[in-house]
Amino acid sequence: CCRFTHPLMLGSGMHTTGIPHPAIVPHSGKQEMEHYDRNMKPQPEPKREKEAKKPTIKKPLNAFMLYMKEMRAKVIAECTLKESAAINQILGRRWHALSREEQAKYYELARKERQLHMQLYPGWSARDNY
Fold it and tell me: Which stretches are labeled DNA-binding (predicted)?
């Protein structure tokens, strides 16, 4: 029958980047079968010592996020909507309706947030969370 292909996939399991997608690349499976013994029970992996998880350090909030944080409760109180997406849409429209002077307050708060973040976590990069 027909095979559904993702729009970003090229023929023969290649992604548009030219890198084979692991879920689509044909796999011979021979190597796995050579080491497989029917009588052998799978051995549980040796338990590793629990690694202390590094605390996730979030990025400092930008001006719009600070605005949303401040105004979300007000919008929820004014509207009967409870869906987060609808509330975000209203907040976005209100943000764009603000004058540059009104937005400047939040840009200044965001600048202070970034400054504080840099002092608290020097050398931090958003890549640290990935």
Answer: 57-125
* Overall domain count for the chain: 1
- Report whether 9 contacts 21 (CB < 8 A): yes
Q: Are 128 and 57 in contact (CB under 8 A)?
A: yes
Q: What confidence tens digit (pLDDT) does each residue in 13-42 have?
A: 544 455 554 445 444 544 444 454 555 555
Q: Which pTM was predicted?
A: 0.54
Any domain includes 17: no
Query: In 3-state terms, what secondary structure has residue 15?
Result: strand
Q: Establish if 5 belongs to a structural domain.
A: no
Cα torsion angle, 17, 22, 24, 27, sign: positive
Its domain, for residue 103, covers 61-118
Paired tokens of 95 = 């943000």
Angle, CA 118 vertex, CA 113 and CA 124 arms, to 5°:
120
